[in-house]
Amino acid sequence: xxxxxxxxxxxxxxxxxxxxxxxxxxxxxxxxxxxxxxxxxxxxxxxxxxxxxxxxxxxxxxxxxxxxxxxxxxxxxxxxxxxxxxxxxxxxxxxxxxxxxxxxxxxxxxxxxxxxxxxxxxxxxxxxxxxxxxxxxxxxxxxxxxxxxxxxxxxxxxxxxxxxxxxxxxxxxxxxxxxxxxxxxxxxxxxxxxxxxxxxxxxxxxxxxxxxxxxxxxxxxxxxxxxxxxxxxxxxxxxxxxxxxxxxxxxxxxxxxxxxxxxxxxxxxxxxxxxxxxxxxxxxxxxxxxxxxxxxxxxxxxxxxxxxxxxxxxxxxxxxxxxxxxxxxxxxxxxxxxxxxxxxxx
Length: 346
Hints:
Layout: H1 3-30, H2 36-63, H3 71-93, H4 97-116, H5 135-164, E1 169-171, E2 181-183, E3 194-196, E4 207-214, E5 220-226, H6 238-277, H7 285-305, H8 312-335
Antiparallel strand pairs: 1-2, 3-4, 4-5
Helix pairs in contact: 1-2, 1-4, 2-3, 3-4, 3-5, 3-6, 4-5, 5-6, 5-8, 6-7, 7-8
């Protein structure tokens, strides 16, 4: 089997595996009692990662350079990174919901690369002069890995928003999860003591207390008595609280991995730009959006580490970062021209 035939087989195989893996994760989320879906989903992601890695290796051997020179190759490298980060995140969180949000994105990227891109764009071609440099591997690979990590972290933040269903969930303890969640600012304390909601303003402040009553069979029951009817005592189930905490923690850690990679990639790109074009920074559209991406996730980490933001607010910021990453990676190449326009084809 020659390398071209092998590549065609592997890209179709990776799409098929990721499609089946997506269905497995969705079935597992719909029917939690099917415990085997977790192992099958993880195996599917691992097989897809291996197929894509083999595909990129075959292209490397065929072309003689690191396979990141065109849109087809970068899409598959991005998918390889997403599946690798997925396996790390899933192993950390022990949650099947990670695959529910990452598998469709990985499958969609492979479908776009395999089924949508013209066949001539999928072929290996000689490098343009600007890309004949060792910086191709050093800069582009780090940037693509940072995109993968930031995308996975943002997807987990979106999953957190879906799980919490708009409720104001706050984490007690550090951002690394040394504590549990509480809903609407309430905290379980002794019977008869006040339960305050510190997030409310003074004029809207209300309080509740826990009172002991008898249910008729001699068993004492704790009831929440709210003196302000505008307050709600609705809470998430313990399972959803645990899942929300896990998603929040893993999202934070994965973004914490992607951000330094993005920083290193931008610095390496500046050095390469100076070597190739005589300027570290030229406000090329790609460079501008890379800076915007860096600022968005810098704001996310600053809010979590310095400002103490937890839960819904930083998750919304990370969800917006998902869109920004896609604009930086794909939108600029498809809709604009510049020094990074080798992926532009309209």
